[in-house]
Structure prediction request, 355 residues.
Amino acid sequence: MTVEEKYMYRCLQLAQNGRGFTSPNPMVGAVIVHQGKIIGEGYHRQYGKAHAEVNAVNSVKDKALLKDSTIYVSLEPCSHHGKTPPCAQLIIDNQIPKVVVACLDPYPAVSGRGIKMLQDRGIEVSVGVLEKEAQALNRVFFTAQTRNRPYIYLKWAQTQDGFIDKERCDGEKPQPTPISNEFSRMLVHKKRAETAGIMIGTNTAVNDNPSLTTRFWYGKNPVRIIIDRQGRIPSGYQLFDGKVKTIIFTEKDLYEKQSDSVIYIRTDFNESLFENIFSILKSHKIDSVLVEGGRELLQSLIDIQMWDEAYIETSNACFGKGVKAPDIRGYVLNKGHWGTSEYVHLSTTDTYKII
Ligand code: AOF
Ligand code: ZN
Prediction:
C-alpha cells in the first residue's frame, strides 16, 4: 500500500458514514495531512449540507498549517455553486498546495472542471488513487449520472427448492408466506433506509397489502413505487395511507385520485416501459430502487438486463410446489452471507461489483 492509498482508504472509510443520508449526492470523505500527520478530516454528512472538504478544513485547529498540507478527497472537488459553494474555491482560498483525488465527478457541471480550476491556480493535483474502489463505493451515484436511471437492486427470498410463494387454491385469501428469517428481515429494512425508492408490481401490492416502510432500522422511508397497469389496488390499502410518498405508474387516467402523497403517472405499457419508468424516477431525484417483487416484475427486469445487484436469500424450507423464483442463472459473481441465511450477491457488471 502506498502512502497515498493509505490516506485515501481513510477517505473512503469516512465517506461511508454518510450512507443513507447523502442521496442523490455521493458519499465523499476528505483527509488533510501535514508532515505525515492527519490534522483534519470530514465527510459529506447529508444531502444539501456541507461537502467533505468543508468539514475537513473546518476540523483543522491550526489553519496556518493548511499552507503546507495535502488534502485527500475521494471525489473530485466541485467547481459549481449548487446547494453549497465550490470546494475547489475553498482549497484555493486556504492555499492548500496539493490535492490528491480518487476519481473524477461524473456530474456534468463539475466533471474535470474542479481539477482544472485547481491546476489553473498552480495547485498540484493527482487523480486516480483507489479510483476503482471510490467508483464502486459510489456505484449508485455513478450509475444514476451516467445511465440516466437509478441503480437497481433486486431482492427476494426463496425456498431451498426454488419457490418464492406457496401455491394457492382458487378463492383462497392471498397472504404473504414468510420465507426470510427475522434477522435478514431486519437487514432488509436497513437496505430500505439506504435506498431512495422501493418498487413492487400489482400482484404483490394486491395480495400482500404491504406498507413498504422502514420499521426495523433507523432512517428514512423509501418512496413507494408501484406498477399498477389497470389501477387495481384498493383505495383503503396501506400504500395510500399518506405516510410516505407513493408513485403509481398506470395505463389508466387516474389523475383525479391524485393527492399530496399519491402521484399517478400515466405510462404506455410498451417495450420501452421500464426505460421510461426509470428515467422518470431519475428526474424525481430517485437514484436507487429496491425491487422487492413479485416474480413477474423481477423476471421482466432480469430478462431485459435492467438491474445492477441482486440479494437472494435462500431458506431451509421446501414448498414442493408454488410460485417459482425468478431465473437469474448465469450471473453469479459473488456469494456471501447476509444475516444467518445464505444469500447470493449477483451483478450484471464487473465494474460495479461490491467491494
Ligand atoms: C464535493 N465534495 O463532499 C460532495 C460533492 O448541491 P451541492 O452543492 O451539494 O452539490 C452536489 C454535487 O456536488 C453532487 O451532485 C456532486 O457532483 C458533488 N458532490 N462534491 O466536492 C462532496 N458530496
Ligand atoms: Zn464540493
